[in-house]
Amino acid sequence: MRGLVCTALTVGLVAAVAPVRADDGKAARAIVDKAIKAHGGADVLKKYPGSVSAFKGTITTMGLEIPMTGEISIDGATKLKVAIRIEAGGQTLQIVNVVNGDKGWTKVGDAVTELDADAVKEAGENLHGGWVASLAPLADGKGYTLATTGEHEVGAKKAVGVKVSAKGKRDVDLYFDKDTGMLVKSAHTVKDEGSGQEVLEETTYVEFKEFAGLKQAVKTSTKRDGKPYIEAEVSDVQLSEKLDDGVFVKP
């Protein structure tokens, strides 16, 4: 589920990295190419940068596990709309978040707040993480540097890791099933809304289904700083070559 994934993917590892060796870059590219093929192929990934996903799940915050339902619309690397309904304390709360390039808004109930520059930048980082995890921008590889991170255990699966770097953006770590090539986890750093601190956010992809020839995650589990954060299940995905610009206007 690209849209949800772009709200919660992160890896908080800060280190001095030596220049990527040519042979390592080729090895990382081979891993990504295998994954792209496993997910449906480069042509279909590039054809559908837009998607609308309906989901249900829970979000854990302040020690509470809160049920939610919603819809996520995403178009490429710069446009996102998340409309959520939360049930808490016997009340229903409607929340809409929109990011459109260098602008963004949050609507809670009837109150709309324009995001400041820092909040838009952070939302853009989250959107970047989700876009990279969709594999779509890696289909041609322009503007991205790939490096292997070795073998890993993701649940009961053996995985191979690739670090994805882009100028001006935080790195995103991707983990692929060693046998099938399917994405099993992605991670990057995010700024926690409550504490304001950068934390490690990891999303595990539990189940995939095929939509219009593209395999999309329909069950995901996200942790922040090693703690449960979001559990989500997608009921439907509508892929699009381009979503209407009116989707991403001020709510």
Query: Would you identify the CATH H-level superfamily?
Result: Lipoprotein localisation LolA/LolB/LppX
Strand content: over 45%
Count of helix runs: 4
Q: Name the CATH architecture.
A: Clam
Instruction: Report the radius of gyration as a whole number of Å.
Output: 17 Å
Low-pLDDT residue intervals, each spanning 5 or more residues:
3-20
- Give the tally of β-strands: 13
Number of domains: 1
What does this 3D model show about the protein?
With 251 residues, the chain is an alpha+beta fold. The chain has four helices and 13 strands. A hairpin with a 2-residue loop joins strand 5 (103-108) and strand 6. The longest helix has 18 residues, at 22-39. Residues 3-20 have low confidence and may be disordered.
Task: Itemize the secondary structure elements and their pairings.
Elements: H1 2-5, H2 22-39, H3 42-47, E1 50-61, E2 64-75, E3 79-88, E4 91-100, E5 103-108, E6 111-114, H4 117-133, E7 145-154, E8 157-165, E9 172-177, E10 183-191, E11 198-211, E12 214-224, E13 227-240
Antiparallel strand pairs: 1-2, 1-13, 2-3, 3-4, 4-5, 5-6, 7-8, 8-9, 9-10, 10-11, 11-12, 12-13
What descriptive keywords fit this protein?
single chain; 251 residues; alpha+beta; outer membrane lipoprotein receptor (LolB), chain A; 13-stranded antiparallel beta sheet; 13 strands; 18% helix; disordered N terminus
Short description, anyone?
With 251 residues, this protein is of the alpha+beta class. 18% of the residues lie in helices and 51% in strands.
